[in-house]
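All the exercises in this workshop are built on plain-text protein records. A record pairs a protein's sequence with a compact description of its fold. The structure tokens are whole numbers drawn from a learned vocabulary of backbone shapes. Once this layout is familiar, the rest of the handout is easier to follow. An example says more than a description, so a record of this kind follows.
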Amino acid sequence: MMKVTFTVDGVPPKKDGANSMWRKQAEVQRLKTFRIAACAALDGREPEDGLVALTVRVFAPVSAGDLDNFATGICDGLMAVHPRAPVDPSLWAEVPEQARPDRAIAFRDDCVVSRIVIERLPVTDVVRYEVELDWVEREGRN
């Protein structure tokens, strides 16, 4: 099927606790950067159906955050925000329309993620993360 890999400077968006990451100023900036990079890598393609394997390599110090929070932030960041989640549209005005919160980017629901591999690696030059999305064939599907 299709495989897409892209790199984003900084640390991934992270979801932790009960508060929405879509409301936290620091996370909104990370979400913007991440969603713009994901849209560019997917080159305008509509969200795919089918199972997705997600691989993430985080080049950041331990103090940047927990890997499980990054995994959740990335998965949620590739979907459209929940309709009841409060989002300030003025914070997203300069973002291309396809990267705005109300648009799904890679999948409509992260329940299609069939595998997640996430690892932290030493920072060699700049804090960054690499994301690989690999749509995998389902048995019995062409």
